[in-house]
Structures are given as structure tokens and as C-alpha cells.
Write a sequence for this structure.
């Protein structure tokens, strides 16, 4: 390992250790316990729920969808899947419980907005990928 | 593939880290180097960038984790040394993944004021930012040769693939990259309207539509702060104190002083911001009433009883800046109760939480 890489790695360990010390030294143990639960929870939710769910969806898609539709479905899954995760706190509007008398917080119709976003992705992302796949396949058939 | 998504993820984490440090420093009462008062829109930009790059990172992180997920299921190599090295690398990856997922999740939830946890958001988010950036540097150090090699080669070149990857995905690598960039760009467009006014119409997931009394959203209402009675009390006085010198002013007294109007943004740590015309008395004019020397720090106290920001420190350079006002009006109308009636602080380039509302006392510190 070169000296530059070793130095970078050592710096990384140092900064992370500083962060760990900041985390543990600046609040009570109940707060720290909760932070650790959230840290582990994020990994567990991703590795044991989200990733297997996406794997299962891919498995089902590979069996049910005709090959021509698969690229479009995969593009739709990447874009809509991540946007849907982002939309959860907005669609749920959980922050409003924290400030029920604040009319300027989360003040749009997020369900309608989300549906517009979904429609836009279907028309602007999924459909073009489908068209390109079909055209490419057709030209390959002719060539 | 993973290196290409990782490059952008690394860049946006870098931006998040640096803008986060700026925000943390701006809120720190003790500043060896004073936080600058100019440009007035500085904090609006750094904090807007912080939240926007964080949101852009969500699709990037999801795809990045997806591309390396099969590696998690691989068994450790044979031989004690190799096994230890692989286990160590996995442990460092676990720290990187856990802290990254934590930062993006808590940051997103905080921007919508949803706090389903017991820990202090600000301290924990800050501490884990150091953990994440440290783990990221370590990851870069370990992977440097692979990353360099991967970025040099064509994205479809299978030379660096794990041996078990034999089947091409439905979308192909270029297609997956395109979908990832699209997801990131749409995530930004859908949310950035909270801080970029001309995007308001398209930001269907903006936390704030930019509306509110005087065209400015409210972060904490008068009721939430518990000041609905004290703020409208006819006996209201603003105390200005320096040592034994003391001046007590009602709202009428403040209105009778020379009024100035400044166009200043209010920029919240949660990422939203709005620019507005504030009118009121120059803070420096008030300090002159008690002959406070130039460069003095001022302790600003609010009528609000609860919360970490009921009392804040205004650094000398902010106190002396001509644009720093005790605002009495917003957009030509008397200040709304939720915007800090009867009087609030507004200063350039200052985090929203320190723009103290419902002022009750300005004490010049010796």
C-alpha cells in the first residue's frame, strides 16, 4: 500500500473516531442507545427488508414480463422506487403532528403532487425506454 | 458501475459535510474566527446546498448499495490473514453504510419536522457526519486501485466483475446509470422549491410552498413558543442593557426611531429559505442608546420560555452591521405574531434559528 493511501486511511480512522467520541460524550445514555438503534435499524431495514423486496420484485418481473418490457420496468423501479421512499415523510405528513397550528409547514397537496410525479416518470422515463428497446429490437431483426 | 455512482455519491457527501460544518460553526456561540455577515445570502446557499445534495444522495446511495449487495452474501476468503482483512473491511463498510443511511434518513425526516427519536438531532447528525466522512476516506484508501481501474475502463468492461456475475441485468449498466441520474435529478427538482423560488411550482414535494404571513413561511408559531399572551401585552417593553445603563422601550418607542428597510433572506437549517423586505430599527442604533462600544457581543433574549434558542448570542460583527435590524414590519405590514411581533431580530447571513423572535432583552456583554 502506498504512503498516500495509508495516510488517507489513517486520517479516515481518526475522523471516524472523533465522530464516535462526539457521539458518545455529548448526550445521555438514553439518547445514545436510541442513536445506536437507529444506526443498526437503517442497515437491518435495508439489508433484510428493502434489498430482498427489490430482489423479489426483479425475480417476479423476470418471469412475468416479456423481455422487451423488462428494461422499461427496471428503469421505472429505480426512479419511482427511490422517489417513493423520499416521498414517505411528505405523504404521511407526520411533521404536522409536531406543529399542528403551523399552516406553512407541509402546506401542499402531496398526494396529488406524488401522482403527478408518478405520471411524469411513466411518460418521461418508462415509456421512452420501452420505445427505444422496441425500436432497437426491430432494427436488429431487420439487420 | 459501483465506482461511477460512488464518485457522485462521494462528491455530494463531501458537499454535505462541508456545508454542514459551515452551519454548525455559524450556530456555535464561541467563534475564534467570526462568522462573516456577508454575503447576506451565504447561509441560504450553503444550507440549501446541504439539504439538496442530501436529497440527491438518496437514489445514489440506494443504487450504490444495490450494486454491492451481492458482495455482502459472499463467504469470507480462506486463510487467517485474508479472512481477518476481509472481516475488517466489512466492518468498516458496515460503519460507512450505517452512518450514511442514518444521516440521509434523519436529515430527510428533520427537513419535514418529523422527529420519531429520543436523541438530539443536531448533535447526533453532526457526530455521525464525522464518522461517515472518516469511514468514506478509509473506504477510498482501501479501494483506490479498484476505483482508478474501474473509472479508466469502459463501464461495460467485465474485467473487474466478481466471478459470479455472469448475467446482464435487464437495463444494462448504461441504462441503470441513466436511471440513477434521472432519479437524483427528479428528487432535487421535486424538493428544491423550498429554497429556490422559481422551482416552487414544480417542486411537488417541497416542504414549504413559500407562502405565509408577508410571503414568508413560519418555523415556530407563537402558540408553540408559548408567547401568545406576553407578545401582545400592552405593557410589553424591550430592555436594552449595558452594565448599569438600561433603556426600556415599548413598540411605539421603537416605531418612533429612524426606520430602515433591508431585503434579507431568512434561511432555516431545515433547508427552506425566503427573501423578504424587513423594516425596523438598526440594532446598532439601539446599542448606541446605552453607549455600548463597537464590536460588543449581545445576548439576545426572547419572550419564549422553552427551547434551545430562547437565548442566543449575537457576535460583535453582526451587532455592528448596518443591515442587522430589530424588525417591526415585514413587507410593509406590521410583523405577524408568528413572525415575532412585537419585535424580532433579522441579520444577514445568519441561520434562521438564531434570528430570534419576540425580543424581550438585548444585553451587551462586557
Amino acid at each position: 500500500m502506498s504512503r498516500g493511501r495509508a495516510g488517507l486511511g489513517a486520517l479516515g480512522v481518526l475522523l471516524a473516531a472523533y465522530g464516535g467520541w462526539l457521539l458518545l460524550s455529548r448526550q445521555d445514555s438514553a439518547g445514545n442507545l436510541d442513536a445506536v438503534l437507529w444506526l443498526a435499524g437503517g442497515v437491518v431495514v435495508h439489508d433484510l427488508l428493502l434489498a430482498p423486496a427489490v430482489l423479489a420484485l426483479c425475480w417476479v418481473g423476470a418471469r412475468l414480463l416479456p423481455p422487451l418490457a423488462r428494461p422499461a420496468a427496471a428503469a421505472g423501479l429505480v426512479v419511482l422506487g427511490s422517489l417513493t421512499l423520499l416521498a414517505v415523510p411528505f405523504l404521511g405528513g407526520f411533521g404536522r403532528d409536531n406543529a399542528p397550528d403551523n399552516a406553512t409547514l407541509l402546506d401542499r397537496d402531496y398526494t396529488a403532487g406524488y401522482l403527478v410525479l408518478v405520471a411524469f416518470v411513466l411518460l418521461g422515463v418508462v415509456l421512452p425506454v420501452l420505445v427505444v428497446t422496441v425500436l432497437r429490437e426491430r432494427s436488429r431483426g431487420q439487420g | 458501475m459501483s465506482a461511477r455512482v460512488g464518485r457522485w455519491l462521494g462528491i455530494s457527501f463531501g458537499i454535505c459535510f462541508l456545508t454542514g460544518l459551515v452551519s454548525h460553526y455559524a450556530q456555535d456561540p464561541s467563534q475564534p474566527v467570526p462568522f462573516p455577515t456577508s454575503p447576506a445570502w451565504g447561509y441560504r446557499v450553503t444550507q440549501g446546498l446541504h439539504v439538496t445534495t442530501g436529497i440527491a444522495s438518496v437514489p445514489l446511495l440506494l443504487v450504490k448499495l444495490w450494486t454491492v449487495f451481492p458482495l455482502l452474501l459472499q463467504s469470507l476468503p480462506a486463510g487467517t490473514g485474508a479472512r481477518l482483512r476481509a472481516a475488517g473491511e466489512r466492518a468498516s463498510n458496515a460503519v460507512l453504510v450505517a452512518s450514511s443511511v442514518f444521516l440521509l434518513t434523519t436529515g430527510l425526516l428533520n427537513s419535514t419536522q418529523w422527529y420519531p427519536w429520543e436523541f438530539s438531532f443536531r448533535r447526533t447528525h453532526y457526530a455521525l457526519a464525522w464518522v461517515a466522512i472518516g469511514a468514506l476516506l478509509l473506504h477510498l484508501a482501501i479501494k483506490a486501485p479498484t476505483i482508478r481501474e474501474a473509472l479508466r475502463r469502459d463501464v461495460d468492461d467485465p474485467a473487474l466483475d466478481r466471478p459470479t456475475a455472469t448475467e446482464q441485468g435487464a437495463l444494462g449498466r448504461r441504462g441503470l446509470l441513466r436511471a440513477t441520474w434521472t432519479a437524483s435529478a427528479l428528487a432535487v427538482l421535486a424538493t428544491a422549491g423550498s429554497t429556490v423560488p422559481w422551482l416552487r411550482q414544480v417542486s411537488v414535494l417541497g416542504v414549504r410552498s413559500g407562502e405565509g404571513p408577508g410571503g414568508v413561511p413560519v418555523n415556530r408559531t407563537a402558540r408553540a413558543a408559548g408567547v401568545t399572551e406576553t407578545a401582545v401585552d400592552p405593557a410589553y417593553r424591550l430592555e436594552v442593557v449595558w452594565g448599569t445603563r438600561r433603556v426600556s422601550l415599548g413598540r411605539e418607542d421603537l416605531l418612533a426611531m429612524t426606520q430602515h428597510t433591508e431585503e434579507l433572506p431568512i434561511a432555516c437549517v431545515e433547508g427552506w429559505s425566503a427573501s423578504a423586505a424587513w423594516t425596523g430599527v438598526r440594532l446598532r442604533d439601539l446599542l448606541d442608546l446605552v453607549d455600548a462600544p463597537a464590536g460588543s457581543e449581545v445576548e439576545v433574549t426572547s419572550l419564549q420560555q422553552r427551547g434551545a434558542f430562547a437565548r442566543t448570542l449575537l457576535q460583535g460583527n453582526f451587532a455592528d452591521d448596518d443591515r442587522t435590524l430589530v424588525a417591526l414590519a415585514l413587507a410593509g405590514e406590521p410583523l405577524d405574531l408568528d413572525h415575532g411581533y412585537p419585535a424580532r431580530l433579522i441579520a444577514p447571513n445568519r441561520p434562521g434559528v438564531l434570528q430570534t423572535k419576540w425580543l424581550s432583552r438585548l444585553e451587551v456583554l462586557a
